[in-house]
Structures are given as C-alpha cells and as structure tokens.
C-alpha cells in the first residue's frame, strides 16, 4: 500500500495508508521460535528472496538519485527515488537513499518508516536492531523490529530480552511472557529470567506455568548440588530461600498444599546442607523443625533453625489443608515475632484461620494487627467484626461495624453487615434505616464512571508509526489501573456482584419490614402513634 501510494500520488501521509498489524506477524515469529528451539513444526512458507535483478533503467535512475543526493539536491533526490520505487518497489537502495533524504530534512518519523521498508528487502539483523533502538517512542513498531532481529538471527537472545522488557514496560504481558519463555528454552532454569516472568504469569493468571518453571529449576539445582551448600545464607547456584518461598506460594495459591509442604521442607533442608537426609520425608509431621520446648508423643530426632518465612508457609499450608494441630504450632512460633516487622505474615495466618472457620484463632491475630495504625485497616476491622459475629458475640460485632460506619460513611458493606446484626437483635428500625442509606447511596452512584482520556502520554504521535500504537496504551492502562490489587474484577463480574448485593439489600429490606410490621401490631396505640409521626 505504501508503494501504491508513491505510485499514485506524492502525498506526505505515508502512515495512514500503511498499517502493519503486529498480530498478523506473530505466527511467523512463533515459527522462528520453533525453528530455533527445535520444538514444534514450522509452517511451510516461501523462502526469503535475495532481491530482484534491476533493469538498466532502474539502475540509471538510482545513479541519478545518488548524484542528486551528493549534490545536496534533496527534493530532486526524493523525486527520483520515488520514481524508482514506482517502477521497482523491491529496489532497496532507493528506500535507503529516500530515508536519508527525509532524515536530512528533519522528518525523522518518516525516515524511520522508510528504513523499516528497506530492512524488509536487505534482511540484515543488525539493521533491524538499530531500527528497534530508534523506535522514537513507537513501542509496537519497536516490538516488531526486535521480532525481526530474532527471526533473522536466532542466536541473538539480547533482542528477545529487549523485546520482553519493552513489552512488560508497556503492559503487553502476553508478548512479554512469550519472549521470556523463549529465552528459557535457550537458557533453562535461569533465575534472572524466572524473577522477571513471575509477576507476569501472576498477572495473567498462569500460576500452573509458574509453578512448573520454578519446580523444574528447583529440581535442576538439586541435581547439580545434591547435598546443598551448608548455611541457608549461602544457597548453591544462587537458588535462594526467596525462590523456594515463591514456589511454595504458587502451590498454596493453587491449593496444592501437599506439594507446598513437601517443597518447603525438602528445600529448606537442602539449603541447610542436609539434602541427603531424606528420611525426614517418612514422617507425616514437621518435627524436623521443632523448636526447643515442644514435646511430642514420640521422641524428637532433633531441631534445626528454620527461616520464619518458610515456617509461615508451612503454617498456612497446614491450616488450609485442615491439619490444625501442626498448623497452629507453626503459627504460634511465627506470631512470637514483632507484628510491625511481619505484619503481612500475621495477616495471611489470620486469613488462613478465617477461611477454615477457625474464628477463635483468627480473631486475636486480627486484633493484634488492629492495635497499630501502620498495620490496621478497614479490612482488618471488618474481619474482627465478622469473627465476633460468627462466635455469636453480636453486641461486640455491632460496635465494630458501627465504628467502621462512622469512620467511613461510604462503606456500604459495613452498613449491610450491621443491618443484619440489628435484624438478629430485633432492632428493625435501626436496620431499616441502614438499608435505606445503602439504597440511597447506590442510587446516587453513577452507573458508568467516565475514565480520563490521556492522549498525551505516549512518547510519539501514533499516526507517525507503521503500527497501531493504541494497543500498547490500552494494555498499559488496563494492567496498571490498580497495581495494588492483582485480583481485580472485570466489568461483568462487578455488575454480577452488584446485582447480588442488590438482591441482599431487597431481601433484608423485606425481612425488616415484616418484622417491623409485627412489632407495630403488637405495640398497639403507642406504636401506631410512632408510625403516624
């Protein structure tokens, strides 16, 4: 289309009629990955041509254009080279000289476009690499250039790395994941690459893939260093306790608690230089890591220092799988630490208790977190109130919900929970008032809040790119809209959740009116006077 534009008219707008879709090029890129890694079959396609034999007329015109360029006759050189392209679009020298002309007249964006066209004809990996680095803020264009580098030179892992990092930076997580996985095919179990791809896989919800990658790396380093290396501070092959915790967290999130326990125990043992002590695996409990003062029915075989973070993972896995005694033992040891230093661990232990219905154990942990401003939150207070309610201590639960309601009048969840408690306590007037407040706030809330449209955030003008750059900006906004909450809900899920909340409100509303109606009938004239007022 760009060639057709040059043939039919001499218009400066090249990008409007020439738009390469990067999605259309991904299959070719995957073919190149298959060819480089030896995994999978490459699709049949045409081989690259070395270029056409130029006619005498075209060679003569190219010579005239070159002379005009040497004589600094840039308009003449542009006109002649456009004529060359009109006659023979595959003449690479014409594209290169034309690009240099536009570079000299300070039209760098168009010069870059023309160099990209020329690069398709000369098939030079180094040229594609230079073009990628000169992307002028056109991220999709740069991603395409890095893809071409790797297609032409599969040994150039640096291009794959740059492509992955750029895709991650602009929020194109799918391309980032594909690129990092391609690097791992060349360099399996590389911990630097694993650390980069881990948050991407979490964001994409590909937890099983992450667990497989880290498990394979763990197995690999165990085979290289069977006995471990001694102190946990000096892990072999740089496979550290942090990598072990990541793998355990992945298994806990996948609710594969047996694997989480097995990995954290065997891994900690290996990092301590006791990799050959596999007899510990014959025991179903965790006495291997008991501290002094713990007496079991059977004799203890010994105690070993244990990282508090690793013990926390054991506690969470044991509690969530239903092994309460072992889980509580680990949790109590972790809870002896300073809450300010390990607030996150305390919160996860409390949540594990809560999920298993162990409200008596969860409540004091939540209350401990609520004692300091830096560790307390509305969520913590709501969890404390919920524990009180589940333990039938309704008055205490109501007091906390009321405290949250006064501190945050917009918290409809606290109001609804408080209304339910007032209903149970036979105080329908208070409950109905809260329900009315929730209904009124939801009526005032806009249905579809408008999002600010920031058109000036991109580094370059998207219309000057050969690619649609909107894709990267949309991905960036969607992936970074709420970085503190990786489990955010989609629009459809939010609507479904809101519909469920509306049903709950209406159900409570009807129930309260029913109870209030019976109370009014039973109270006689006094109640009627109150109602008439």
From TrEMBL:
InterPro entries in UniProt: Tfc4/TFIIIC-102/Sfc4 (IPR039340), TPR-like_helical_dom_sf (IPR011990), TPR_rpt (IPR019734)
Gene Ontology biological process: transcription by RNA polymerase III
SMART domains according to UniProt: TPR
Residue ranges, compositional bias (Polar residues): 450-467, 475-490
SUPFAM superfamilies named in the record: TPR-like (SSF48452)
Record's GO cellular component terms: transcription factor TFIIIC complex
Region (Disordered): 442-497
Protein name as it appears in the record: TPR-like protein
Organism placement in taxonomy: Eukaryota, Fungi, Dikarya, Basidiomycota, Agaricomycotina
């Amino acid at each position: 289309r760009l060639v057709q534009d040059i043939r039919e008219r001499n218009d400066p707008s090249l990008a409007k009629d020439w738009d390469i879709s990067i999605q259309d090029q991904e299959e070719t890129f995957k073919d190149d990955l298959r060819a480089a890694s030896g995994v999978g079959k490459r699709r049949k396609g045409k081989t690259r041509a070395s270029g056409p034999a130029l006619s005498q007329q075209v060679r003569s015109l190219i010579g005239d254009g070159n002379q005009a360029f040497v004589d600094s006759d840039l308009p003449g050189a542009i006109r002649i080279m456009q004529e060359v392209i009109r006659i023979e679009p595959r003449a690479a020298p014409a594209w290169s000289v034309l690009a240099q002309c536009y570079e000299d007249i300070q039209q760098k964006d168009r010069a870059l476009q023309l160099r990209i066209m020329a690069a398709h004809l000369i098939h030079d990996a180094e040229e594609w690499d230079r073009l990628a680095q000169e992307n002028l803020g056109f991220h999709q264009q740069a991603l395409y250039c890095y893809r071409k580098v790797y297609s032409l030179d599969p040994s150039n892992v640096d291009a794959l790395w740059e492509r992955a990092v750029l895709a991650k930076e602009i929020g194109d997580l799918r391309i980032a994941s594909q690129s990092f996985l391609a690097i791992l095919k060349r360099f399996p179990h590389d911990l630097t690459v694993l650390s980069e791809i881990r948050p991407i896989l979490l964001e994409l919800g590909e937890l099983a893939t992450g667990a497989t990658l880290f498990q394979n790396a763990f197995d690999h380093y165990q085979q290289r260093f069977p006995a471990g290396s001694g102190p946990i501070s000096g892990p072999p092959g740089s496979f550290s306790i942090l990598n072990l915790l990541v793998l355990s967290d992945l298994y806990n999130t996948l609710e594969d608690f047996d694997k989480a326990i097995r990995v954290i125990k065997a891994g900690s043992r290996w990092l301590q230089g006791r990799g050959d002590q596999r007899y510990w695996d014959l025991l179903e409990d965790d006495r291997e890591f008991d501290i002094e003062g713990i007496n079991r029915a059977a004799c203890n075989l010994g105690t070993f220092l244990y990282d508090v973070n690793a013990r926390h993972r054991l506690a969470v896995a044991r509690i969530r799988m239903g092994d309460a005694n072992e889980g509580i033992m680990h949790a109590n040891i972790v809870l002896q630490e300073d809450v300010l230093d390990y607030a996150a661990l305390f919160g996860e232990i409390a949540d594990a208790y809560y999920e298993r219905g162990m409200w008596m154990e969860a409540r004091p942990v939540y209350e401990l977190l609520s004692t300091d401003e830096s560790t307390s939150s509305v969520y913590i207070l709501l969890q404390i109130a919920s524990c009180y309610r589940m333990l039938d201590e309704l008055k205490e639960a109501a007091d906390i919900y009321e405290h949250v309601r006064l501190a945050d009048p917009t918290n409809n969840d606290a109001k609804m929970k408080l209304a339910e408690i007032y209903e149970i306590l036979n105080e329908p007037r208070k409950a109905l008032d809260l329900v009315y407040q929730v209904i009124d706030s939801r009526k005032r809330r806009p249905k579809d809040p408008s999002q600010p449209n920031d058109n000036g955030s991109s580094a370059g003008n998207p219309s000057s790119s050969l690619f649609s750059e909107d894709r990267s900006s949309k991905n960036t906004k969607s992936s970074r809209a709420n970085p503190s909450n990786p489990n955010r809900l989609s629009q459809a899920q939010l609507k479904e959740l809101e519909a469920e909340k509306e049903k709950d409100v209406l159900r409570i509303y009807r129930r309260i009116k029913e109870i209030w109606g019976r109370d009014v009938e039973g109270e006689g004239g006094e109640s009627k006077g109150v109602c008439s007022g």
